[in-house]
Write a structure and sequence with these properties.
single chain, two-stranded antiparallel sheet, mainly alpha, Herpes Virus-1, 2 strands, 4 helices, 96 residues
Length: 96
């Protein structure tokens, strides 16, 4: 989850917490997987016009949360690849 939060808010790029996406049928009070999260700042997560308080309006403006999730997963994978390359280079920089 920290990798997702490190991306910054999906909407405004401010520091973010994570929003858990609940599949249909999963009751309130039960969280979905920690792998199904998107980064949102407080205002876009729980503020007056947030995904929790105005979901339809939020999704009309910024996209469906499931679509955002797919993009977030791509960004996290790209970040992990870049980190792996960086670590490989640092480990082998005297050999290259």
């Amino acid at each position: 989850m920290s990798k997702v939060a490190s991306l910054g808010c999906w909407v405004c790029q401010r520091p973010a917490n994570v929003h858990h996406i609940r599949p249909i049928g999963l009751g309130i009070g039960r969280r979905s997987s920690h792998y199904d999260t998107i980064p949102l700042c407080y205002d876009h997560h729980q503020g007056q016009f947030s995904i929790h308080n105005c979901k339809q309006q939020f999704e009309d403006m910024y996209g469906k949360e499931t679509n955002i999730l797919q993009e977030v997963k791509k960004r996290v994978a790209e970040m992990e690849q870049a980190n792996d390359l960086f670590n490989f280079y640092n480990k082998h920089k005297g050999e290259i």
